[in-house]
């Protein structure tokens, strides 16, 4: 049993809007999400609204045990594509028709409410590509909800039949209506100092030792929103592109928030939250300032380049036991995804952390664009070398398939299940006896399809409520947009000449890669040409992508240039340190 403190209770009949904030994943994940707590806090500051939490697998609210159907608005926070299954399961269990068309209001009502609540969705998955779930949702929030949240609720209140007047919501920024398929520009919080910071977080306590597994991932802590957005430009990282530019909260504001939250809750532990916490421009001052004020600090993950001996010492002093870093791959491939971090730096961090007795968790990716069998062999050796540095501390590894994501330079790629499987098989054999966790290649495939495909995928999602979907069904959607025979559009045809030019450019520009990698790039592109010869309507970089109406603000050519650089193993310097590379965000 879990007990909670700081839960907000109101009288249902005293509010105009009952808002169910639904997290279609487990309680411990929900309560570790800062965004989820922000929405809860912001809505409950309004006298006219009551936000309650509904967390998978339950379909009743934690606060008042009310069923989902009783709410005016149901809002899904979609952080992971796999949560789409849970979302539909929850709707079905709550006896709410999952398809929007089946919820349509047939008659006029003499009351404000229709038979069913308004169903909205937000979060990174909904923002990047709402299409796979667009037949299920009434309104998508594209970007961050906070700037329009109050206007959204005010408008809802003003409308007589909100479900019948969905188009009225288009007067707000960041709204995508699947029924209209409108073009939409992403909306984000501009100024972190005036953004909503959580100073009265919900505190969860386990009744028994065995219940502790259900507690939030960071334990009970003050979640301090150090920054949002990251402009380092790792070419596989969707949130790096979705939430640009880098927005920092000022140092003094962070101290004030932490002090206020401690006064409200008695908590002393602070978790630093941000896309790349160690990139915070005053990270050493922040950690020292919090330690001097008597706080303990933990941070989920750190960017290797910005870890300093000082920050490692501070973290150790504040009771941190583990640090998490992501070398991603061996050096040439790391460079190709724009993480130009040399091995010397990585081994230096590992050595320092080991000397301090800190445990390490390292993340790697497989299935990168230029990756060869030789690279995988080298990766196994690389991991063995890191493992050999282990002293009394533990070193754990996590190896995950790369999932191409919308709005990244990899958005045109497909997912090769067979290739990923064979690489994992090889690594498992080579890394016996080392603590390595592999993500499932099949789950990677499903995640890819749900990330990068269109409306048609909704049918599979719906079917999955009653049937086990065979892998083959998902695999039918595994091809990318650069080389895919499923096109009907003449606009999508690219000529082999263009591909040949690309190859020549790739090779002539490539001055830093070894010969085997160049051959591999060449082989891959040749394979594309061969396949393109047997296809009608070959797709290319100009093809229309399912998320074409979602404008997150990036320049059209920027992603294409970045894609080219993957094949050329070429770096793009970080705009915070070097000059602006004109991605388009800071117009
Ligand atoms: S526009 Fe320039 S400064 Fe702004 S995020 Fe993009 S690269 Fe960085």
What keyword list fits this structure?
single chain; 587 residues; alpha/beta; six-stranded mixed beta sheet; four-stranded parallel beta sheet; 19 helices; globular; binds iron/sulfur cluster
Would you mind describing this structure in some detail?
The chain is α/β, with parallel strands linked by helices and 587 residues long. The protein is built from 19 helices and 19 strands. Strands 3-2-4-5-6-7 form a 6-stranded mixed beta sheet. A 4-stranded parallel beta sheet has the order 15-16-17-18. α3 links the parallel β4 and β5. The chain is globular, with a radius of gyration of 24 Å. Bound molecules: iron/sulfur cluster (SF4).
Strand order of the largest sheet: 3-2-4-5-6-7
How confident is the prediction overall: mean pLDDT? 88
What fraction strand?
5-15%
> How large is the radius of gyration?
24 Å
Please provide the count of β strands. Answer: 19
* Main sheet makeup: 6 strands, mixed
DSSP helical segment count: 19
What is the CA–CA distance across the termini?
51 Å
Low-confidence stretches: 484-537
What small molecules accompany the polymer chains?
iron/sulfur cluster
- What is the helix content? 25-40%
Secondary structure class reads alpha/beta
Principal-axis shape: globular
Brief synopsis:
This protein is α/β, with parallel strands linked by helices and 587 residues long. It has helices at residues 27-30, 34-44, 83-93, 124-128, 146-158, 238-242, 251-265, 283-292, 309-317, 331-336, 343-355, 373-387, 417-430, 441-452, 457-463, 471-475, 496-509, 515-533, 556-567, and strands spanning 2-5, 17-23, 49-55, 73-77, 118-122, 139-141, 175-176, 184-185, 203-206, 222-225, 227-228, 247-248, 269-273, 296-298, 322-328, 359-366, 395-401, 436-438, 550-551.
